[in-house]
Amino acid sequence: xxxxxxxxxxxQGVPIIGCHCPVCSSxxxxxxxxxxxxxVSVDDLNILIDTGPDLRQQLLRAGVTRLDAVxxxxxxxxxxxxxxxxxxxxxxxxxxxxxxxxxxVMRALHREFEYAFATHKYxxxxxxxxxxxxxxPFFIQDIEIQPIKVRHLALPILGYxxxxxxxxxxxxxxxxxxxxxxTGLEVLVINSLRKEEHYSHFNLEQTLNVIRQxxxxxxxxxxxxxEMGTYExxxxxxxxxxxxxxxxxxxxx
Length: 253
Ligand SMILES: [Zn+2]
Ligand SMILES: [Zn+2]
Ligand SMILES: [Zn+2]
What we know:
The protein has one domain: 4-Layer Sandwich (Metallo-beta-lactamase, Chain A). 19% of the residues lie in helices and 28% in strands. The chain contains 7 helices and 14 strands. The chain has helices at residues 55-62, 77-80, 87-93, 103-112, 176-179, 204-214, 231-234; strands at residues 2-7, 37-42, 45-49, 69-71, 97-101, 128-132, 138-140, 143-152, 155-162, 165-168, 187-191, 218-222, 242-244, 250-252. The relative contact order is 0.17. One zinc ion binds next to α2.
């Protein structure tokens, strides 16, 4: 299995428009973060997690020409706004793209991309199908997907486990019962916003606490803000098995 981190930045991305802080001004490519998303290639399937506003640029940069499914973590715009950019994939594959997520998230996509579901569609709109899922295991072809229920402030949202890989973003709380579903991981990708606490996202210390509890072989931090610091400054301070995610890096699981 391979996991490509298509984007590792928080909702505004890094750099932020108009910000002149050392991170946003950094010349280091590792400090450039598009909005959080990942592509999981497992057996012959390409499973995309979220469709943020940078999706077009991310698919071009990674040379992606095939998508078999999209898993949604939640409905916030930094995770959904790029959905229209799956159209070229529809045209190449000549088939409907299946989207999976909580019923509430599927309803939000239906509302916000209503033209894609119209009875008489304008030619060229995305060809997509909504598949509401409950927080219990389901299959995409023969790949088992295990949703992990986490909280994003008060909002219940999903992370996903596929074999010995798990992806969690935008979490600020994970119950013990869900942490138990994360044991025995080879790779955990998990959100970490910045060093200071935040009301709706784990900060670095909270993320490291989760990592210490579930003990993955390796962990990669995503949904990173400019307030985290530069890659060069932060990376050496992390435990040996914890890495600051880098945009477009490919992780072999
Ligand atoms: Zn987000
Ligand atoms: Zn900045
Ligand atoms: Zn969010």
